[in-house]
Design a protein that fits this description.
Length: 491
């Protein structure tokens, strides 16, 4: 049975809306609708469905019993579409920039087929967290064939291992890269009556999208988060590496955690780290200054890539060779060239999708990004930042449901979430049919009338002899078998 996320419903015998202090914020539906109408009048309707999409999927190669594989990565360092992430057994599949999420998803599927064709008896593990952790030393940092030109990449991974521990680096997910269509931005600039520097305006638009996405991230987490703790040895290693506050929260919520990966124990910024960095996404200049200062100090971050924000601004221009491993290099390029696209880091692996992510999730997410573009993008002050941090914890540690750790967003959250979903349905009506269906399905999930991937997974684990490990291996075998005919045809 699906779990209701809506405030006021009865969950585990407790009323989700009980005792929740209402915040004064509401979703600015009228203003968002007016901006959408102005954009369409300015000729921007077609651009809503356009842009550039790129996907990156990480995942562990495992032996038939679920232990991390000990074999070398099956492709050379020159293969850019199928490379390695942190570990030698942790593959990363990367698409080129594509003209639609469907095209990016199809290209990602082809990369999966190529990888699985090289795995032999090994499997590509379908979940974000490892299924077995009784021999953690099996998961060693990537070696890049020992080639000297990759010395900086090996040194960077050694530093990650020292600073963050092996368990955290073993977590996998999907990154979603996106840039808006140039004609859409031009129409929005006309609709807004913007003047002055086009680049400064564009940077401001992207930073506004990031602020608004942070306002609504918890909705996506609650609907699609899927990295619950399963293997006890892995969970204890991850706990040991976490700060005291995060560890205590995790212990209180252990029975309902839906997304370890997106929580402070995974790749969510721990409260103390976020406070020390002080990055508020107000402007490009402030972002570069604060993050650069943190990297130069070397205390909180050794490299800007360790800023594990749910969303990060990126520039297309890149340095040659190993420059990307130099601390501060990407920040200097960002300051020089401005924002070209955004990297969203909030997709847990969907174990029921052979690509690790499904088209429905990608389409819903695109509409969420468009909603983040069109609603007013006020700066986030200290009070709102604290509220958003609570909602983030609720959507990951508390599983997007009632638990003893903290209540749901309650009526205060519903005043923002339900109008947001309503506005998303209005945006989706301007897009190809699959988008409206994706938003409608999400609204059903929010109301508890449709399963989330997490609900399906928990039901499968409960019904599988051998639990989560056996269920994960069965899914991995089924995905390998489904890919095998296509892989043979490609050869």
């Amino acid at each position: 049975m699906a779990t209701s996320i809506t405030a006021g419903t009865i969950i585990d015998g407790a009323e989700a809306g009980a005792g929740v202090a209402e915040a004064p914020r509401v979703f600015p539906l009228a203003a968002a609708r007016a901006r959408l109408k102005a954009l369409i009048a300015a000729g921007g309707r077609a651009g809503l469905a356009r842009g550039r999409w790129g996907l990156e999927r990480e995942g562990l190669r495992v032996e038939a019993d679920g232990r991390p594989a000990l074999t070398p990565h099956p492709f050379g360092p020159e293969e850019r579409a199928i490379t390695v992430d942190f570990a030698e057994a942790q593959a990363e599949l990367i698409t080129s920039p594509c003209a639609s999420p469907e095209a990016a998803w199809a290209e990602l599927g082809e990369a999966h087929r190529r990888l699985r064709a090289r795995l032999g008896a090994e499997l590509f593990w379908p979940l974000s967290l490892p299924g077995r952790w009784d021999e953690p030393e099996r998961l060693g940092p990537a070696e890049f064939g020992g080639r000297p030109e990759y010395a900086a990449a090996r040194a960077y991974r050694a530093e990650l291992l020292r600073r963050h521990g092996r368990a955290r680096q073993a977590i996998s997910g999907v990154h979603y890269n996106f840039s808006f269509d140039a004609e859409l931005l031009a129409a929005l600039r006309r609709a807004d009556g913007a003047t002055g520097s086009e680049r400064e305006w564009r940077d401001g638009i992207y930073f506004g999208v990031m602020r608004n996405f942070l306002r609504h991230q918890h909705v996506f987490n609650a609907l699609w988060g899927m990295s619950p703790p399963e293997d006890e040895a892995f969970w204890q290693d991850l706990r040991a590496a976490a700060g005291g506050e995060s560890r205590a929260e995790a212990d209180r919520c252990a029975g309902v955690i839906s997304s370890v990966r997106l929580s402070p124990l995974g790749y969510g910024l721990a409260p103390a780290v976020a406070e020390a960095l002080g990055v508020d996404f107000s402007s490009l200049g402030g972002y570069v200054e604060r993050l650069g200062a943190a990297v130069r100090s070397g205390g909180v971050l050794a490299h800007e890539r360790e800023f594990y924000s749910p969303v990060r601004p990126k520039t297309v221009a890149g340095g040659a060779g190993e420059e990307k491993n130099e601390a501060g290099a990407s920040l200097r390029r960002l300051a020089r060239d401005g924002v070209d696209y955004l990297e969203f880091r909030v997709f847990d692996l969907d174990s029921f999708e052979a690509n690790g992510v499904g088209l429905e999730a990608l389409r819903f997410f695109h509409v969420l990004v468009l909603a983040s573009l069109l609603r007013p993008a006020e700066f986030i002050g200290a009070g709102e930042r604290a509220e958003l941090a609570e909602r983030w914890r609720w959507s990951t540690l508390c599983g997007g449901r009632w638990c003893e750790c903290r209540p749901s967003p309650g009526a205060a959250g519903e005043r923002e979430i339900l109008p947001l979903l309503e506005f998303m349905a209005e945006i989706a009506a301007q897009l190809p049919p699959g988008y409206a269906a994706a938003v409608a399905a999400a609204r059903e999930r929010w109301a508890g009338r449709r399963d989330r991937p997490l609900d399906r997974w928990r039901r499968l684990v409960a019904a599988t002899p051998g639990g989560a490990l056996a269920a994960g291996l069965a899914l991995a075998r089924a995905q390998a078998a489904a890919d095998a005919p296509a892989a043979r045809g490609a050869e």
